Amino acid sequence: MKKIFVLLLVLGFFGGTSFWVGSVLAKEKPEIPEKDGVYADLDHPGLKVRVFVHNEKPAKPTPTPSVLQCSLEDPDSVAVVGAAGWRLDPNWIYNLNLGSVPAAVGGASLPKMASDGFGEWGAATGVAFVRGVDTTVSRQAYDGQNVIAWGRTSGTALGVTYVRYYPDTGQVVDVDTIMNKKYQWSWYDSNVCAWQGAYDAEDILTHELGHWVGLNDEYTAEYIENTMYGYGAKGEVKKDTLTTGDVSGAAVIYQ
Fold first, then answer.
1. Which residues of the chain have pLDDT under 50?
2. Residue 196 in contact with residue 69, Cβ under 8 Å?
3. CA of 218: how far to CAs of 168, 229, 232, in Å?
4. Furthest-apart CA pair in the chain: how many Å?
5. Angle at the Cα of 140 (from 177 to 121), degrees rounded to 5?
6. What is residue 30's predicted lDDT score, i.e. its pLDDT?
7. Selection from 166, 159, 140 nearest residue 40 by Cα
8. Residues 139-195: tens digit of each pLDDT
9. How much is the pLDDT for 7?
10. What is the pLDDT of residue 252?
11. How many angstroms separate the CA atoms of 184 and 180, rounded?
12. How many other CB atoms sit within 10 Å of the CB of residue 220?
């Protein structure tokens, strides 16, 4: 009789433990996927998270020498970029993670790159972008910080931007851009010069900031010259400045 009682007690313990573990796992909320799309923020009812993944341009990998090439062209485009469904408040604070920046770019360069990129979009939208306190955060989260950092992203993403907003009002509450540290990055303080064997950090960042202000990615041939063209390429700096179509798309949102 004692053996039966002990056996039932053991089974009850493990059965109860399995039920407890299963209940905890069932209650765990899924992570926001690192995949293009709109997702619900389960911790904040009514809030949506729009994820933009900026991929490298599909092409056969060819070795490119790491040489500085100047006199690069910056063609214009009148193709108007589409709106994503939100707009920023007139004053917007951003937070930089200087310690996350690859050595080839340098953390001391990030404030200048961000200022240049925000300057382009500020002129197009009227939004006043203000640098806030620096951060050590290198992952997306709804945490009261609008982060620009290098970190880990999966697949072929050069950078991923997460925009948290209320779709009914278009109000943005948090934005984070995480650049992929696994790629070769460079920066040369020029809109006509770039290192040909690497991705120009300001070029890719300025594209990502277009999502902050409310613009979509565009992938068709008419948008190839736009800053908001959906693919990035090595040795490119034309996205440092906006095309007529980028400015026109932003103007529609902030008119």
1. 1-28
2. yes
3. 24, 5, 12
4. 91
5. 25
6. 59
7. 166
8. 999 999 999 999 998 778 999 999 999 999 999 999 999 999 999 999 999 999 999
9. 37
10. 97
11. 9
12. 9
Task: Return the structure tokens found at 105.
Answer: 């770019």
- Res 65: pLDDT: 72
In 3D space, the residue among 36, 51, 56, 40 whose CA is nearest the CA of residue 157 turns out to be 56
pLDDT of residue 60: 60
DSSP assignment of the chain: -HHHHHHHHHHHHHHHHHHHHHHHHHHPPPPPPSSSEEEE-TTSTT-EEEEEEEEEPP---------EE-S-------PPPPB-S-B--SEEEEEE-GGGS-TTT-GGGHHHHHHHHHHHHHHHH--EEEE-------S--SSS--EEEEE---TTEEEEEEEEEETTTTEEEEEEEEEETTS-EE--S-SS-EETTSEEHHHHHHHHHHHHHTBPPB-SGGGTTSTTBSEE-TT--GGGS--HHHHHHHHHHH-
Query: What is d(CA 146, CA 92) in angstroms, rounded to the nearest whole number?
Result: 9
Two structure tokens written together for 141:
């989260």
- Check if the beta carbon of residue 202 is closer than 8 Å to that of residue 116: yes
Q: Output the six-digit token pair for 116.
A: 């240049």
- Look up residue 114 and give its two tokens: 């961000």
First to last CA, the chain: 82
188 token code pair: 């040369």
Instruction: State the Cα angle at 60 between 58 and 61, rounded to 5°.
Output: 105
Note the pLDDT of residue 218: 98
Task: Report yes or no on whether pTM surpasses 0.85.
Answer: yes
Query: Which tokens hold the place of 19?
Result: 């039920």
Only one residue has tokens 């950092």, namely 149
